[in-house]
């Protein structure tokens, strides 16, 4: 027993001595450094990257892999410890005005969106090892300043983050609660928020949050405020022609009115506007029964004597046109409504593998914009096809052909972009079913296949039998030819021999 104990102790001591030797020969890269996430807002406030003060080194390097993807890893600067202070040598590969040297090798990053990326602080003397890593994320709002907005208008806000990993998602919230407004991700890093018919309930704080699972990593806030002074105005709204679509028409006046009315004129029409609804002070509103809006229009509740608002639902493609609000026989404001509709061919049920055409049509083009088809890739939507439409052009639709529709070709959207800002977003969901072969059809296919195989087998058998007889005839004829050649002094030509062979096959 003591002997065994001694042997075990020796082995233990040998292993313990070996552990530091193994650690001694491990490369510096084996000791990974945890990445620290840092965030800043474009044009607002930069960030300071703080590195370990005591590293025992004398020379270091700052490296950067930008989020924008236009270049790979680049060296920003080399930092050297002298007798009294640190010296910085900036490289020519970067814009050094975007970065500032700090104490003890620290670096300050200015609030420029393109500066986002992965930053590495690496010691290169006396030995090479990574001391710190920072993932710097940049947030950007568009527009940067949110001006007060008019009641009834549509508003689009844009939140762009320099990088969004697969484990992350971006979400807009209104006063810390999920918003009912339309939001969708575009090109992975950009998320749009589209609010239709802004009203008092729409005002407040909006946050764009980067989160993983249910944890918010960072949020950026801004506020939507309403214009306090009502004034005559004109604006344009886009609406889809669908069962769930709606449009609200707000007419807010500076003073109380005696009479007010809403009227409508179709696009391109030279005829006078037709009255939709009217109201007289202290009297209930009257809805005109002589327009195609009958049954779909109603006065909105909760309005004052200085406002007259209508609710139209659902919106049809023929509703496109100009709406006028006249107060006391004077035009106070107007709203242009442009409608969109989508169609799918074939219009019936879709089957996997067949060709499908998606067409998006707008009612009118008053100003230049891009009409686009977007495909949903799960985490983001990307443009599949787009075309610029102009008032002077004749094109008002865009068709996208899917040569062979599959089950993953389900979510699409038609969108109107002015510049890079979406003004309209019309989602479309396709349902393509797998092909199902009926039992009767399958039985017919099996029977036809068996008949074909039996026919081929019979044909092969007959051909082999025919060839066997032909070979027997050929051997007999060759024997006769050899005998004739001997008798005739070998005077028969090759041509005659081949003629005889062909005749043998014909006669067999």
Task: Give a structural overview.
- This protein is of the alpha+beta class and 508 residues long.
- The chain has 5 domains: 112 residues, Immunoglobulins (Immunoglobulin-like, Sandwich); 82 residues, Immunoglobulins (Immunoglobulin-like, Sandwich); 97 residues, Immunoglobulin-like (Sandwich), CATH 2.60.40; 88 residues, Immunoglobulins (Immunoglobulin-like); 52 residues.
- It is 17% helix and 42% strand.
- It has 3 helices and 33 strands.
- The strands form 7 sheets. Strands 1, 3, 4, 5, 8, 9, 10, 13 and 14 form a 9-stranded mixed beta sheet that branches. Strands 17, 19, 20, 21, 24, 25, 27 and 30 form an 8-stranded mixed beta sheet that branches.
- It is flat.
Key descriptive features of the protein:
508 residues; 33 strands; Immunoglobulin-like; single chain; eight-stranded mixed sheet; disordered N terminus; flat; disordered C terminus; nine-stranded mixed sheet; alpha+beta
């Amino acid at each position: 027993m003591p002997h065994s104990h001694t042997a075990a102790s020796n082995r233990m001591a040998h292993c313990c001595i070996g552990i530091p030797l193994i650690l001694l020969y491990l490369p510096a890269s084996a000791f990974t450094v945890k990445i620290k996430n840092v965030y800043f807002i474009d044009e607002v406030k930069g960030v300071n990257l703080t590195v370990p003060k005591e590293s025992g080194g004398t020379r270091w390097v700052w490296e950067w892999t930008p989020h924008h993807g236009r270049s790979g890893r680049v060296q920003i600067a080399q930092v050297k410890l002298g007798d009294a202070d640190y010296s910085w040598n900036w490289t020519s590969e970067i814009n050094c005005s975007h970065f500032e040297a700090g104490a003890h090798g620290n670096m300050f990053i200015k609030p420029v969106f393109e500066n986002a990326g992965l930053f590495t602080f690496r010691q290169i003397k006396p030995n090479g090892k990574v001391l710190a890593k920072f993932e710097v994320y940049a947030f950007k709002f568009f527009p940067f300043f949110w001006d007060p907005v008019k009641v009834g208008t549509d508003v689009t806000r844009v939140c762009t983050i320099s990088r969004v990993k697969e484990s992350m998602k971006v979400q807009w919230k209104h006063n810390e609660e999920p918003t009912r407004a339309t939001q969708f991700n575009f090109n992975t890093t950009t998320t749009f928020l589209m609010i239709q018919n802004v009203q008092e309930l729409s005002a407040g704080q909006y946050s764009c949050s980067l989160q993983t699972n249910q944890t918010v990593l960072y949020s950026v806030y801004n506020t939507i405020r309403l214009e306090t002074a009502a004034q005559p105005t004109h604006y344009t709204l886009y609406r889809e022609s669908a069962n769930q679509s709606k449009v609200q028409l707000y007419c807010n006046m500076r003073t109380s009115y005696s009479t007010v009315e809403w009227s409508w004129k179709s696009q391109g029409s030279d005829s006078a506007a037709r009255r939709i609804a009217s109201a007289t002070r202290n009297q209930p509103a009257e809805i005109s029964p002589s327009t195609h809006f009958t049954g779909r229009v109603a006065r909105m509740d909760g309005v004052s004597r200085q406002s007259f608002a209508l609710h139209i639902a659902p919106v049809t493609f023929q509703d496109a046109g100009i709406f006028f609000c006249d107060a006391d026989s004077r035009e106070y404001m107007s709203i242009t409504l442009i409608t969109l509709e989508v169609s799918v061919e074939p219009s019936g049920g879709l089957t996997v593998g067949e060709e499908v055409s998606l067409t998006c049509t707008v009612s009118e083009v008053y100003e230049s914009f891009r009409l686009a088809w977007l495909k949903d890739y799960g985490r983001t939507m990307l443009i599949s096809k787009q075309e610029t439409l102009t008032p002077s052009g004749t094109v008002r639709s865009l068709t996208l052909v899917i040569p062979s529709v599959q089950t993953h070709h389900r979510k699409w959207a038609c969108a109107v972009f002015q510049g890079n800002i979406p003004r309209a977003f019309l989602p479309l969901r396709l349902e393509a079913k797998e092909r199902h072969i009926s039992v009767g059809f399958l039985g017919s296919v099996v029977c036809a296949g068996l008949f074909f195989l039996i026919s081929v087998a019979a044909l092969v058998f007959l051909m082999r039998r025919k060839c066997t007889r032909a070979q027997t005839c050929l051997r007999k004829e060759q024997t006769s030819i050899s005998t004739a050649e001997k008798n005739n002094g070998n005077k028969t030509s090759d041509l005659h021999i081949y003629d005889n062979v062909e005749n043998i096959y014909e006669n067999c």
